[in-house]
Amino acid sequence: MANYAVLVGVSNYYDPQIIDLPHAGFSIRRLSEVLVAKGEFELSKMLLIADDHEGNDYLKMPYKFPVISTLLDLAHKWPIQKDDFLLFYFIGHGYGSVKGDQILLKDTCFRYLEETALSVGVLTKLVRPIRAMRKLLAFDSCRNEVEGTLGTHESLGKSRIDEFITLYACKPGELAYIPYNDKLPLLTSAFIDAVEDKNCLSIGNMYNLVCDKVNARSSQIAAWQTPDLCAGGKELDSIGFLSRAPRNVPDVPEGSGFEQEIILTNQALHLLYKEKYPHHAPSYAPFMNAAKELKNWQQKLDRKTFRKVAFNLLGKGENADVYTVSYMVRWGSDATMFRPLIESLAAEKYRGTVVWQALDALEVILRNEQVAKWLTVDEELKAILIKALSRSAGEHPTRKGQPFAPSVVWGKILQICKRADVPFQSVFSPEALAQL
């Protein structure tokens, strides 16, 4: 099993309408040095195409033809085997349109972008015949729309390459940044950290580490950049990163008592990978961190620690947010998991829109037959929920300063009970209703 790499960095563009990227060549060379130093790649199997050096070798400059020629050679002349790994890494400008996505090479003409740039569609056709079964395409480029002179406001487009694992520096509409005090772009810097981390064994490990690093560094410079990865439905943690082998997750025997923990863990990770919780949203940070922890405890089968992490996820930890709590509660099925949510809803620091969070929690609870039964007999839990509803009924969530009629609240509760097929009276007695 061998690793092959095609590393492309464009620092200087011929067209004056395309702003140069002075550190692109340096960054791609720094990446190549780390890959070789860590023993992941041999120099003979790494093809570096950059323009930050003196020389007249046309085939080693990031023009359109040398890149195409290099990929054709890999497919038809190089002895690449199925169990090998191919890394294609590009640092430069990108552009996206309804006709397709492009990467901008040294000889790209801004006036004729679609004619002179390298189409991502063509790039995928060139990479597809290469025999390596594991292919990672990485683009350290912005992805926002092009307007006027092409500089930091470029786009790699919104299309995805489903047949390969594709890593983008940011999500559509965002920018890719280089800190003022650094020569390395955020993505490339984080990717190098992943290469240097011996515990980064799988593509999933790599992506999590890259996200953490980019999020931390972008927040320090008040930037908004979220790495994006497309795996075409592949299981990220089962695919080795570079030449590394991922750890096998042990199967959980039936009747072991950990079934519920495993279910919650898988659901949390499902949400994480489906991107329902964007990495850049601060209120979702506790969920993101806890989801990663849950995966670790799934492997270790540590019930006590799992419970601790789950409670942190549901509002017991620092920086927990009621929105994180209310959305995550949808995927739980243990009454103890709902109590932190309802307590959060009843807390004095939450106002206004909390009523909708409480109602959402109530619907989740009533839709779970087992939890609904617990609620009918747990008077303390019921009292906390009633307190949350009572506090929240005083302010309209969308009309600031206007009262939120209790009749609207109870109308909503009646609808919820009906959808959940739970008798209203079994949850709230006349005495409970009188408290509002």
Description:
It is a single chain. With 436 residues, the chain is an alpha/beta fold. The chain has 2 domains: 3-238, Rossmann fold (3-Layer(aba) Sandwich); 259-433, no CATH class. It is 44% helix and 10% strand. The protein contains 17 helices and 9 strands. The strands form 2 sheets. It has a 6-stranded mixed beta sheet with strand order 2-1-3-7-8-9, sandwiched between helices. A 3-stranded antiparallel beta sheet has the order 4-5-6. Strand 4 (94-97) and strand 5 (100-103) form a beta hairpin. Helix 1 (24-37) packs parallel to helix 5 (186-196) and helix 9 packs parallel to helix 11 (335-346). It is elongated, with a radius of gyration of 26 Å.
Task: Give short descriptive properties of this protein.
alpha/beta, Rossmann fold, 3-stranded antiparallel sheet, 6-stranded mixed sheet, 10% strand, 436 residues, 2 domains, 17 helices
Question: Any chance you could write out the topology, listing elements then pairs?
Answer:
Layout lengths: L2 E7 L14 H14 L8 E5 L13 H13 L8 E7 L2 E4 L2 E4 L9 H4 L1 E2 H8 L6 E7 L24 E4 L17 H11 L6 H18 L7 E3 L28 H15 L11 H16 L2 H14 L5 H7 L6 H12 L7 H14 L1 H9 L1 H14 L13 H14 L4 H4 L2 H4 L3
Parallel strand pairs: 1-2, 1-3, 3-7, 7-8
Antiparallel strand pairs: 4-5, 5-6, 8-9
Helix pairs in contact: 1-5, 5-6, 7-8, 8-9, 9-11, 11-12, 11-14, 12-14, 12-15
The total of helices stands at 17
Strand content: 5-15%
Number of strands: 9
Level of helix content? Answer: 40-55%
Biggest sheet descriptor: 6 strands, mixed
Strands side by side in the biggest sheet: 2-1-3-7-8-9
**Alpha-carbon Rg, integer:** 26 Å
CATH topology of the largest domain: Rossmann fold
**Helix-strand category:** alpha/beta
CATH architecture of the largest domain: 3-Layer(aba) Sandwich
Distance between the termini: 69 Å
**What is the element string, with H for helices and E for strands?**
EHEHEEEHEHEEHHEHHHHHHHHHHH
Give the overall silhouette.
elongated
CATH class of the largest domain: Alpha Beta
Mean pLDDT: 70
Q: How many separate domains make up the residues?
A: 2
Low-confidence stretches: 147-162, 249-258, 268-287, 297-336, 348-352, 395-404
